[in-house]
Structure formats: structure tokens, C-alpha cells
Design a protein that fits this description.
Helix content is 58%, strand content 14%. The chain is an alpha+beta fold. The longest helix is centred in the C-terminal third of the chain and has 28 residues, at 105-132. The radius of gyration is 21 Å and the shape is elongated.
Length: 169
């Protein structure tokens, strides 16, 4: 269920996730602005993929539920094979690319800053994993979510290892 309280504020409860969890969990790998979400919600209502209802105590509070057609569309979308990797905007890599001299002092500055950012993010994701998936039952109940989190942790671990090898050069 997606709850929209007013333009600029979106409260989400989707597959049992609250708005904060939605931001923390899905927001780790997918970003969407309000200007993207509202037109999509409108189109999905028009196409009968979701149904919109209002809170009887507050007409401004909107609830969105997947319809049977919406569930079919979601499952069909999941089944479509992914044929290309996404383009990732990575300013760190772009900046490194343009440094010609292996002794340029900016390399060390860039690497140290990137290392700090990645280590902070890794700590955050490890904390999320401990909080959300501390039992096999919790992992099994939300297995896809668990896999995405595991993938993100692995990716960060490898980036940190790579940066540490650069520091040793």
C-alpha cells in the first residue's frame, strides 16, 4: 500500500514497509523524485493497476493498493529478462579517469574520501542486515530484499579492498 498525504510528502506502506523503511531499503538502490511518483500513480490508477482510496478521517490521505491486474503486471514485469546493465554515474571514477600522473596528490585525497564514504555506508548496511535479517525466518520471508542487501554489502567490501590496494601503491 502506498499512502500519499500531500504533494511533497509520501508515506509508503508497501509489502509491510513503512515510509522510513521504504526510503532506507528501496532507496539504497533506487531513487525516485515526487515529480516521477505522482504521474506514475495517476497512470497506474487509470490503467487499473492500483486502486486509490482515501482515509475516512482525512480525505487528503490517499491509499494505493495493487489490483489483481496490477499484481499480474508486476509479476509479468519481474519475469522480463534484463538485457543490459544500468549506466552508473560515478563521480569518483570519472575524476580518477582524468588524472594522468600516478603521483598526483589528489589521488590520495580522492581515495581517502571515497574509502571513508564507503566504510560509513558498509557500516550502515551491516547494521540494517543485523536488524532486519537476524534469523533464518526473517531472511526467508523477505528473501529478495535479503539478497539485494547481501549484494550491496559484497559490492562495498570489494570496493573498499580495491581502494586499500591503491593506498598501498
Amino acid at each position: 500500500m502506498l499512502i500519499v498525504k500531500s504533494p511533497g510528502w509520501i508515506y509508503v506502506q508497501l509489502w509491510g514497509l513503512t515510509s522510513v523503511q521504504f526510503k532506507n531499503e528501496i532507496g539504497e538502490f533506487w531513487k525516485a523524485s515526487h515529480s516521477q511518483i505522482y504521474p506514475e500513480l495517476k497512470k497506474m490508477v487509470e490503467d487499473d493497476w492500483i486502486k486509490q482510496t482515501s482515509d475516512s478521517n482525512n480525505e487528503k490521505e490517499k491509499y494505493y493498493h495493487l489490483t489483481n491486474l496490477g499484481k499480474e503486471k508486476l509479476n509479468s514485469w519481474i519475469d522480463i529478462p534484463i538485457t543490459a546493465l544500468p549506466v552508473v554515474e560515478d563521480l569518483f571514477s570519472l575524476k580518477l579517469f582524468f588524472i594522468q600522473d600516478p603521483y598526483d596528490p589528489r589521488i590520495s585525497t580522492l581515495v581517502n574520501k571515497q574509502l571513508n564514504l564507503l566504510e560509513e555506508q558498509l557500516d550502515h548496511l551491516n547494521d540494517r542486515e543485523k536488524m532486519l535479517f537476524n534469523t533464518q525466518e526473517k531472511r526467508s520471508k523477505n528473501y529478495g530484499h535479503y539478497l539485494i542487501l547481501e549484494r550491496a554489502i559484497s559490492r562495498l567490501d570489494n570496493q573498499i579492498k580495491w581502494l586499500k590496494t591503491i593506498k598501498q601503491r
